[in-house]
Amino acid sequence: MISQENGSGMPSSAAAPAKQGHRPQPVTLRQVAQAAGVSTATVSLVVNKKKSARIADETRQRVLDAIRELGYRPNAMAQTLVSGSSRFIGLVADAIATTPFAGQIIHGAQDEAWKHGYALLIANTDGNRELETDAIAMMLEYKVRGILYSTWFHRATDLPASLRESDFVLVNCFSAEPGARAVVPDEVQGGRSATEILLKHGHRRIAFINATIPAPAKDGRLQGYKEALEAEGILFDESLVLEAYPDQEGGYGATEELLKRDVTAVYCYNDRMAMGLYDGLREQGLSIPGDMAVVGFDNQEVIAAHLRPPLSTVSLPHYELGAAGVRMLLGLEEAQAPVPTKIYCPTVERNSVRAPAPV
Amino acid sequence: MISQENGSGMPSSAAAPAKQGHRPQPVTLRQVAQAAGVSTATVSLVVNKKKSARIADETRQRVLDAIRELGYRPNAMAQTLVSGSSRFIGLVADAIATTPFAGQIIHGAQDEAWKHGYALLIANTDGNRELETDAIAMMLEYKVRGILYSTWFHRATDLPASLRESDFVLVNCFSAEPGARAVVPDEVQGGRSATEILLKHGHRRIAFINATIPAPAKDGRLQGYKEALEAEGILFDESLVLEAYPDQEGGYGATEELLKRDVTAVYCYNDRMAMGLYDGLREQGLSIPGDMAVVGFDNQEVIAAHLRPPLSTVSLPHYELGAAGVRMLLGLEEAQAPVPTKIYCPTVERNSVRAPAPV
DNA sequence: CAAATTTGCTAAAACGCTTGATCACGGTTC
DNA sequence: GAACCGTGATCAAGCGTTTTAGCAAATTTG
Predict the structure, then answer these.
(1) How far apart are CA A54 and CA A46, in angstroms?
(2) Can you give the residue range of the structural domain that contains B279?
(3) Do A179 and B119 touch (CB under 8 A)?
(4) With a 7 Å cutoff on the CB, does B54 touch strand C?
(5) Count of Cβ atoms closer than 10 Å to residue B262 Cβ
(6) Partner B contacted by A339 (CB < 8 A)
(7) Same domain for A58 and A175?
(8) Can you give the CATH number for the domain in which A275 is found?
(9) Considering the domain boundaries, does residue A154 fall inside one?
(10) Residue A255: pLDDT over 60
């Protein structure tokens, strides 16, 4: 048993200097109480600014002084224990580092959580089921208020069983299982918006280079494209929809086919394809947006903002996804599980689009 | 006061079904003990697999069954309270979402922390001092084992005062203040490695497009460039060092000057400049690596791996930085504060470099 | 067969905090 | 002068664990 040498009387040293080596035990409520010559209850009341409590100004001051003097910090664990409800929200992500996407989800979640007095407990799982289970277990042991289960690209997902032991919200993914609340980007609206950028500038023959790999984004973005055309009274032309692997190579490789379509504008499934397409078009001596207007999707800053010319695109609202996830978890936002709440994808207009050259 | 309806006798329902609405209070040790007909002490001993404890196999089994039956999860808060030391490591970052960089630091920190049984508590501050202080306060209240203070680009930093109240390690930044342990990338070695890629392929006249803005990276990468040349017996030529703003525009804009230097290869301060330079060179009808070999720095995947041709570059070891930070915090790695520990920057060779054309 | 030892388990204190109940006391009211 | 009140503080229980000391029963020892 370790005996505190200053068990009685005033503590001798003020705000722990915190040298390199052994860090002193944190100051407790009791020590403050002792220093101020009051009970721990009183200190607690002062610390928490309880309106209902009656504390003499003189006493309050004495306590406040002692707190400052000793450098007291409440022990959140102890507080949680007694209050019964923790101030944690867990966030499990399948790929924190691969893209900036997950980072934005974290960012949004953290800001929103913070706003409501919650701290974020995060775990990266690399999509590994075992890690995932461990991560969730950890969060459950910390009695998190709830868990945000997020994926770095929009997709359907199977819920780890243990997720059910807590409140949870799916972020950027969804599941048909009952009670699975979810927030996802509104791909259809995004696709519509992307196409509308082009339409707005007067383009009528607009190609869409879709992805080859199946995903909600693939269907949604195509659907949006169709809707936008239809709204303008333009007949959907199947032959204007190409498909390629959704990366630079894919975009580059699609150039040739695209040029056979005799279009003035193209909407790419994502910015990376657009980046490849830029290379392809340039190789053909074509200029953007003069010879071909281009819009992308995703708004990957590093790419879109810095291509030459900067790429008009549609933003994936990852930050909002994270924030909305938190709100939904806390019951501040409606949810009709298991149908996901869709988040608006804003457009970002840069210089890769202008009116088509007159014929 | 809320009274548990099954305060005595066997609990009636098994593993909480966790419906949508009201979530039942988590199962406690006491409930397990009751269900198994033993004391809480016994359950605790079973749960923690204490070697020193003697528990009859039959009893152990009964407890295990009860645990499974009830879906018991230990309360980490309570554990922390009694054990006195928490299993948290705090990570404060100034920009979680701006680049994938911070994400990688988080990733590395989280993996390493996990490995040692710690969970990561993160906070994004956007470089805002007030938020920073709040974030650190939060972490201190959760009695974190220590705090990783990280920045998204390598730089000197002022320590928030409250950081001193905990163990801490600076990640990707440093401070001259005493006791400030830090891990940073080895910019000099990185610069040397970048240059060596070019030298190795036989280039002798190598330009360096440095950044205009002051930073440890600016000095370090130049220093490395000089060292590599010197090691090869090549005289450092001041005129081969250009400066530009470290983004695409900068790289693009530097093309003209570069071409006056009559070099066969160029090493860019970062990948984004290289990306701009690609555009500039292409406009001049020059090919990479045929007419000009190019290496970058940072290894920003989205860019470097997907440029045409893919860019050889040097990797900023953010993942390692995060991991090393955790190890240093836990005392598993030496530190000679306040001189930062330097982490190796590995090269990533792709196709933007080959031997210079014979004259 | 008494003493000593081992086995299996429990009682209870402690961790740092919150909070409803309670108390002492000087001042009002009737 | 008794009953009452408001004020300012304290008491003590309890949150869910861990852990040490200790107890009763079973087993071994001499």
Answers:
(1) 9
(2) 187-316
(3) no
(4) yes
(5) 9
(6) no
(7) no
(8) 3.40.50.2300
(9) yes
(10) yes
